[in-house]
Structure formats: structure tokens, C-alpha cells
Amino acid sequence: MTKRLVIGITGATGAIYAIRMLEKLKAVPDVESHLIVSPPGLLNIKYELGMTREQVNALADVVHSFRDIGATLASGAFNTVGMIVLPCSMRTLAACAHGFSDNLITRVADVHLKERRRLVLAIRETPFNLAHLRNMTAVTEMGGIIFPPLPAFYHHPKTLDDMIDHTVARMLALFDIHIESPQWEGVN
User: Fold this and answer.
1) CA–CA separation, 150 vs 81, rounded Å?
2) What's the pTM value of the predicted model, to 2 decimals?
3) Which residues, given as ranges, of the chain have pLDDT below 50?
């Protein structure tokens, strides 16, 4: 059975995480990626990675328009294993926390919360102000997962790619999608 995973890319820094996730998912035969990119997300992709919309879209199985709130995945009848907003801007976090479904990313996030499906927000902002913290609490209370893409060092990464790949693997594991990655083996 094919697992559908929705990936939203917003205007926060850290687009490399989403791109790497899409690249890794290409090698997972039973996962269908559904991509939504906000205009600020595309701007960051161009700035941080030098990629075009066409290059990013080519990495996904299905691409949806950010403005198409009538898309199939805007309905609870569209079955998914979950949604990740990666990276997630503070604006998108606030919209999710307060139910503002004003674009396809926030509409699909709202659908995932109301259907009690997995919603992961990979927030990218520091330091946090009180509004950020309260919005994270609200999303958590509704069943969402706040997952800042913070690197781990217990696997002794040698490169930036090692850190990005490990974080992406941990995020995908939340959807029961497993890719090769170092695992915590405890302290000897």
C-alpha cells in the first residue's frame, strides 16, 4: 500500500532539509510525496540552494499549487500518513495554532489536525518569543508535533550532509518511513 506524505515548504531558513527529504523519498518505493511550496519558500530555495521551482518540483511525485485550497489533499477524505512543514515559518506556525486555513499548506495542516493525523512542524526561528512558545503549545495540545531540525552529535557526524541526513531520517521515522541512518546505540 502506498503511503502519501505531504511536504510543505515555507519561507523559513533550512530549505535543504526539505530538499534532502524529497531526494531520500525518491528511493522509497512505497511512499508518494505531495509537495506544496509557498512563495517565500521558493524564494528561500532560490537564495539558499540556487534551485529553480522546476528542479524542486521534479523531486516530488505530486506537486500542488500553494493557492489551490480546493486541491484533493485539502479534504479529510484524502488519506495520508501525515504532513510535515519543513521548514516551518513562525507565520505558518501561528496560522496552524489558530486555524487560519488561508492557503493550501495551512489548510492541509488544519485537515491533519482535525482528522487526528500526524502533523510535524519543523520550526526554524531562534530565539523564541512568547507568541512562538504559545503557538507551539497550542499546536502540541491539538496533537501536532514540534520538531526543530536540531543536529545530533552522538553519531559523530563528519559533514554537514551527515547532520542533515540524520535529522531527515529522524523526521521520516515519525511517519513510520525508515531510511538508512545512524541509530543511538547507548553508551558503552
Assistant:
1) 23
2) 0.96
3) none
